């Protein structure tokens, strides 16, 4: 986790308040703030088609061999508008039923001994989030908005730990990134988002101790599905999108899906664009019941602003004392262009009745060109990265006496390389911006990682045990400014969880897990000797309970946790100068989440989090302080109601509230930078015009608003201050046929 000042610095301008780029990347733990130095100028479905219930045991219905009631597994069949992807992530409305993110097996969420939340396609359709941060904003334990309306990256913490670089996965594979090259997410191309809280290194390797976010892509459906959508909204937003899917042949042997989008828009800062072209083709071949091969592709060309943030006022010692309403950049030199594409496949093949092979592979490529200006000081960053990620494992089902096992044994591999070219200055005071900074600095990096792992899920009557062990090897060659560093890291991680399914559909559980993140692109200098930082390590204890309400489509979960993390690499900047430090922290807290989608048309998601994140090692004056921009209390509630009959049939109403408690704006907990508590209100209104006139069947009109009451306050993070994003309204017209 490499935290750094939002305004950033380049190596050649340490001490100056100008944007730049943080050097080096890991698969690892580069924090939000790090990425912001790299770029900032001033810092930086749901129509349910089929449901089948399967008993967890073969005893009398709903009863385990011991007499305890077993939780039921709800399977949602794929099809037009269906929520989820069969066998990968399955939901009913807002309620998550099962998924592979937590265990790489199709495990019921209510029987998974670790905290996991899922943002379903139904939620995405109702709330219309415009980016990943907005999509997960109603999830417990997730902190978004610490950089205000930051448009360039999806930056957020889970349980007080940054996941921006080390916790984002796509379809179960690591999403390759570099310091200034992070894949942007288009929510329209997503089927669901699963947020696993707590370490998952035992099956995913190098990843954050806070957890992972697994983004599930849209896949082909067996039922024909076609829709087109137009949007118009705040800041001149104009967008068109389409999504077509279905079988190619009568036997459903070959399925296809094609999703696309085009947008022309600005943001609340007129100098910042929000333009995008997106296309995602997919195809599935299933020659028999035991074999499925799915190809997944994507290309996106997007442009946003290269400078984010406002001019800050500074006090004695060069530290910020607050933001001004003056934008720090300049529209004439401000484009942040990014082209990204990926191609990959997923294979499932039954080798026998109880052994199944899973194999997936993805190649990705990304190139960026960022122009930035801060207070008439310009800079440019051009970066390219490419990477390969692959995972292969066997799932074996067997019995040993009264014990039922799901054993997975696997190996995965990932590689990444990137090159970066940068230049900045000198100060400009002219109006034509004819001068473009010359490239004066280069860096590159290569990484390779291999991991082997084993995990066993054991059922004994009403007991549910999950235990896993993994070992990783990672090597890196990092060359900043012509000086090469190399490092080899090796680490063993594990996870164990135990739960008991009571006769009342309540499962109390306990779990323990460890994590590691290598830091091959982080150079520390001690006593005049420079070397790459050692890995960040972490461990978590969690105790919780899950309750699947009988005869209702509802799930309630609660958990308490303790995370201890050591050796995170961060930039401590409150003194006014970029100083690379080692951070240890302790994160403790309590989380409560409820989700429901009922037959009467009411859907609800509610979440509360208490998170106490203390610094246990950084600088003498910060030990014992609360980690900056990390509130103790957060609460969210979203409720959606769709009239099922009568005069208002076809009308849907949604409203949400998000409360963010107070926090500190820097790690010194300086009072002048305190962040006040704030409350945001969101809303949605939609109408199925087919209920009004049958000739308009399939047409839906919808309006969504975020921060409806236009609550805008200063927000400070790592000693630099921004403002919350103001009111945003988007209207959409969708036609399904």
From TrEMBL:
Region listing for Disordered, in residue ranges: 99-132
CDD domains to which the protein is assigned, alphabetical: ligand_gated_channel (cd01347)
Pfam family, one: TonB_dep_Rec_b-barrel
MF (Gene Ontology): siderophore uptake transmembrane transporter activity; signaling receptor activity
Domain (TonB-dependent receptor-like beta-barrel) ranges: 284-708
A Gene Ontology biological process term: siderophore transport
Family membership: Belongs to the TonB-dependent receptor family.
Subcellular compartments: Cell outer membrane
Major localization listed first in the record, in broad terms: membrane
Bilayer topology annotation: Multi-pass membrane protein
Gene Ontology cellular-component annotations: cell outer membrane
Ranges where the TonB-dependent receptor plug domain occurs: 109-212
Keywords, alphabetical: Cell outer membrane, Ion transport, Iron, Iron transport, Membrane, Receptor, Signal, TonB box, Transmembrane, Transmembrane beta strand, Transport
This protein's name: Ferrichrome-iron receptor
Comp. bias (Polar residues): 100-121
